[in-house]
Amino acid sequence: MNRITEHNLKGIAASPGIAIARAVLLESEEYIPEKAQVASAEQETARFRAAVEDAKAQIESIRESTEQKLGKEKAEIFEGHLMLLEDPELIDAVIDLIEGDSVNAEYALYEVSQSFIVMLSELEDETLRARATDIRDIRGRIMNSLRGVKGGDLGQLQEECVIIARDLTPSDTAQLNLDAVRGFITEIGSRTSHSAIMARSLDVPAIVGVGEGISAIQSGDLIVMDATEGKVWISPDADALAAFQTKKAVYDKRKAELAAWVNKPSVSEDGHRVELAANIGNLEDVQKALDNGAEGIGLFRTEFLYMGRATLPTEEEQFQSYKYVLEKMEGKPVVIRTLDIGGDKELPYMDLPKESNPFLGQRALRLCLANEELFRTQLRALLRASRFGNLKIMFPMIAVREELLEAKRILEEEKQSLIQAGAEVSDSIEIGMMIEIPSAAISADLFAPHVDFFSIGTNDLIQYTMAADRMNETVSYLYQPSHPSILRLIRMVIEAARQEGKWVGMCGEMAGDPNAVPLLLGLGLHEFSMSAGTILQTREMIGNLSYAKWQSHAKHALTLGGQREVQSYAQEQLQGGKQS
Amino acid sequence: MISNTYTVLNPTGLHVRPIKTFVEAASKFPCKITVMCNGKKANGKSSLSMLTLGVKMNDEVTLEIDGENEEEAMQTLGALLVQIHE
């Protein structure tokens, strides 16, 4: 009999990790009051007001203890609860119902709050939908006070446990002895529900939304939860348990190893310093970049500001977004790429003509130069935001020098007119361009005197160099980042920049590819920008590489016959390096 | 009565924290403040009511303000709607 598959539950992995511990069930049966007539509506209202005051006092004390235990930010949720307890649409509506119908306070409270819970549950946005839990939380608290019932005390947990619940309210988690909690499993909820957020901040695994199957778990059952995959096993047999313990040990060790690199600089074994940055596509990615030890933002794609809406974003709207990222990065470099749209990425409100070959058409800077007002609006927003951090502006899709010079001229014009109008603009904004068209890579020396940096966009550079659409499976074998042709182009760009004392970054997928990183280091790449999740492993890898050795390995790789030869050569050197 | 329309820029829309800031500011004004979005109406002085609007990033929100100090309220509250919160 295979008990492992038999009791498998699956949910959403909301906080990664593996836990093995006994289950503790949190009961969440809700009290549904009966409707009753009261003799004195006035007395009933007073009773309700007293219960609300009582609830306020309780929440205030939980808020204080949460602030001590988990910090100010986590305690803020309770300020929200205090505010709900003063909400006119809630409190006044309950009192209106008590007074209008002479009904009991419990019933009035339940009815009014239920209507809000239903409204919230119907919202599209899962974060807002999750707020229904907050209403349930404060309702439960007022209700207990009205009924003279004490809420369950969860502070007693001493032994390591996995918490099993329908959903967790902020009050529940605030009262838990969190030192003992090894994980959370809930029946409902999403990545943004309170239990998920709490689990991530406690750094314990959480699996949410496992559904009704959760009732198979009894208090005291040994639970194995693998929140890297969202899977739960109930009382696994000895063999399975041993396998999970090994898996957990490996996972935890790896996690600790990587975590050790968060605040370290990115330096090779022999002391060569590079910069590991994050690519971001929206404002929420900034925190993730910081959490993963990014030393900057190497590519901020601004397209999200323009997509999924009915009109162009205004200058003010853009300014707010750029300012937010710059401030959040606290002086670390932030490379913001001007709009890269057109061709396959459409904006319905722009009414762009259909092109037969969009990747070779009027996209990115080409489109911006043809629609100057659109371009100028973005540049003004960038310039105005520049004083809030370390801004670097990058132009995409440049093929010839005239395009760069024209973009720079427009930028300078906007800068001067802003300064004349009295705006404050940073005087140390670096200007750079992406290298993603082979013509720009081959003639990088013509561009280098006119920029402060280059950033190589490998996804497009490879596709244009190989003349192969990487989304087309029949030719996807031609997507070869380590082909000598690509490596030679990269070297040309780095050499041209070096002659002029400029730096070179890379913001394509290749920058975080473990097969390519040693070679890129050896070629002299300065900045590697990648998705936040791969920064730490790359920093660890670079820390174990010798820059001097890889300089000569990379030079040799350029002379090899193809990608396969380059990759096996690099593998040999990596393995050889470990032995020596 | 005056009214004006704003686009919400906060990445997570109007959730608990921005609403708290908004409602606190709104409650200081004596005038009637109505917030409209997605075909729904809310009392600008009630966070609960504001939550039920389900305002997402890039949603257009109309502020309708009626009464004493309405101009000043529009200026203060409009700025809060387009502000980006942590």
Automatic annotation (TrEMBL), chain A:
Enzyme Commission code: 2.7.3.9
An annotated Gene Ontology molecular function: metal ion binding
Pfam families membership: PEP-utilisers_N, PEP-utilizers, PEP-utilizers_C
UniProt keyword Kinase, yes or no: yes
GO biological process: phosphoenolpyruvate-dependent sugar phosphotransferase system
PANTHER family per the UniProt record, alphabetical: PHOSPHOENOLPYRUVATE-PROTEIN PHOSPHOTRANSFERASE (PTHR46244)
Protein name: Phosphoenolpyruvate-protein phosphotransferase
Automatic annotation (TrEMBL), chain B:
Classification via InterPro entries: HPr (IPR050399), HPr-like (IPR000032), HPr-like_sf (IPR035895)
Residues annotated as domain HPr: 1-86
Any one GO cellular component localisation term in the record: cytoplasm
Pfam families (alphabetical): PTS-HPr
GO biological process: phosphoenolpyruvate-dependent sugar phosphotransferase system
Swiss-Prot/TrEMBL keywords: Cytoplasm, Phosphotransferase system
UniProt-annotated location(s): Cytoplasm
Superkingdom of source: Bacteria
Protein name (Swiss-Prot/TrEMBL): HPr family phosphocarrier protein
Provenance organism: Paenibacillus nanensis
